[in-house]
Amino acid sequence: MDNRNSRRSDRGGIQDGFEEQIVQVSRVTKKTKGGNKMGFSVLMVVGDKKGKVGVGLGKAADVSSSIRKGALLARKHIITVPIVNETIPF
Predict the structure, then answer these.
(1) How far apart are CA 31 and CA 37, in angstroms?
(2) DSSP annotation of 46
(3) Torsion sign across C-alpha atoms 28, 60, 35, 33
(4) Residue numbers of the chain with a pLDDT score lower than 50
(5) CA 58 – CA 78 distance, rounded (Å)
(6) DSSP character for 6?
(7) What are phi and psi of 63, to 5 degrees?
C-alpha cells in the first residue's frame, strides 16, 4: 500500500521533483447578454532546476481550478534548456 501512494504529495499533486511557481493571476470578464461572466487566468511555470522547464496557462471559473489546469499544462509542455557552468549559454 505504501508504494501506491508514494507518487502523491500531501496536497494531492504528483510528486515528481518539479517545483511549481505562479507567475501571474488575472481576473478576466466577458460581457454577455445576461451580465458579466467572470473567470480567472493563471500563468504557471514548472521546473526541476536542472534544465527542464514548462509553462502553462490555465483558465477556469475559480482560481484553484485554473492553478491546477496551468500546472497540468506546464507539465505537459516541458522543454529541456541547455545549462553550461550553471548558466544558459547564448
Answers:
(1) 6
(2) E
(3) positive
(4) 1, 4-12
(5) 15
(6) T
(7) -70, -45
Dig out the grid coordinates for 25 from the structure: 493571476
**How far is Cα 72 from Cα 56, in angstroms, rounded to an integer?**
7
pLDDT at 13: 52
Q: Considering the entire predicted model, what is its pTM?
A: 0.74
Cell numbers standing for residue 69: 489546469
Length of the chain: 90
The rounded radius of gyration (Å) of the Cα atoms in the chain is 17
- Cα dihedral sign for 78, 86, 22, 12? positive
Number of H helices, E strands in the chain: 1, 4
What does the alpha-carbon distance between residue 55 and residue 47 come to, in Å, rounded to a whole number? 9
Q: What are phi and psi of 73, to 5 degrees?
A: -65, -35
| Parallel, antiparallel or unpaired: strands 19-32 and 35-47 | antiparallel
